[in-house]
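Example with several molecule types.
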Amino acid sequence: MSVTIRDVAKRAGVPLRATVSKVLNGRLGVRKATREKVLQAARELGYIPDFSARSLVTKRTRTLGFLVHARHTLSPHAFYGEVLSAAEQEARKHQYHFLFATFNQGDEAVPLTLLQEQRVEGLILAGCDIPRSLIVQLKHGGVPLVLVDNHVPGVHSVVIDNEGGAYEATSHLIRLGYTKIGFLCEWLDDLSFSERFAGYKRALHDHGLPFRPELVAEGEPRTPGSGHIAAQRLLDQGPPGSGRCGQRPHRNPGHANLSGGWPGRAHRHCRGWVR
Amino acid sequence: MSVTIRDVAKRAGVPLRATVSKVLNGRLGVRKATREKVLQAARELGYIPDFSARSLVTKRTRTLGFLVHARHTLSPHAFYGEVLSAAEQEARKHQYHFLFATFNQGDEAVPLTLLQEQRVEGLILAGCDIPRSLIVQLKHGGVPLVLVDNHVPGVHSVVIDNEGGAYEATSHLIRLGYTKIGFLCEWLDDLSFSERFAGYKRALHDHGLPFRPELVAEGEPRTPGSGHIAAQRLLDQGPPGSGRCGQRPHRNPGHANLSGGWPGRAHRHCRGWVR
DNA sequence: TTGAAAGCGTTACCAC
DNA sequence: GTGGTAACGCTTTCAA
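Resulting structure tokens for the full complex:
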């Protein structure tokens, strides 16, 4: 069987496992000589404390949960894999680990169970597909929570600078000398797209270019082929001012999800377009 | 604090926590009436067994480790995120979870620690960047192991059907009527590319087309721009039979890594090429 | 500083 | 079937 704290104590010649525990956890109250003996014995035996036993008593797991909607991780365009990877590398510096779980429709209980089992100390929820009700519930339960690519008032979140990004992209095209720059997106009611739309318009304005509603086209909400559809609509352009263009007000800007249903693809579908 | 098995026992009116444990784990040896009482009490209290306590005694964590080289997960072209996601969804059906960890140079101890801490019961190692020595060591340690996109004799592994895929791709082009089909790859000494090369040649042969060495070009091993380089070389074609073409023998086919250093990009760089 | 003992929340193993 | 008890491996507390 694997080596336990008993074995270390015995080998070090100290009668008590408590002493070993103290030494290995860097607590004081142990004579230097004793400490050395213990350290050496542990090294020789290749002792690694049992995770379950330790966390049973300390009530800490140094583990975080990472949740993504199953729909996204399967898409090669989703960037949540990169987020997870980077988060893990940062967490490791603090001796934290990540439990990964996909979020499937109807699995609302899973994250809660992870918490109640005392497996994880906090959660990162990636994507805007995690039900808002669940997020609110977790938040109320006092669970340390961070959202990625999503936003709920009062919850920590990491989001994309949509406005700034669109501003930069548009400015770049303008600097290259283009003056007729279109704007494609899934649908303007989505907060993330409306933010980009704002950045697009601000850039036009700052560079003294007119905003032309006929150069704006929406595709279909939460549809993979949406960018194509939008482009098609722009190319098949009817008379300016038709319903699909321009500055219509957002129905529920406060409640719209950040970055729509296809966040990983957003940067491909929502871009400056040059004619 | 959270609700423990004691609370359930008390509420159910049974004097023993052991009984509760039995019921909740579906063991027999409990009268139906008692069982009902326990079940109801557990439901009412929202009881979830503590993970650490449970695994301390059972010695099981129902948790698997998923390791990928840090270099890969950061690349949007790597498909390991999809592998992880799919693996997790399958594992969940069996009530298993995944601990995710990136593998960093010099972190050889990490997977071993995870094992010794009794945190994970087995490991999935994705990519060909995990040191072979580590794999062999784990294997000898009796750790349940599965490699993805990598191969070591005697270790379970999931690999791409390189030969078959290239055969299909080439056949497809032939069926479309093309007869002058090129083959680009990073370098032929790599097992995965040489397998694809074999499939390519087999398809040509099966369809009665000649193999023309001047249509084969290598790029640079383990270089992101490799496909471009190979294409350039093919286009700048010198006289047939120059060193970069054809059927030279593989130095160490048995020891070559599967699918080179850029597995996620392989399908983009190594393809049938039509002129 | 060191020694002894209690306890974390579960499951497993006994007798009854 | 049912009930009690021991044990898992560790940390913590409290006397000595």
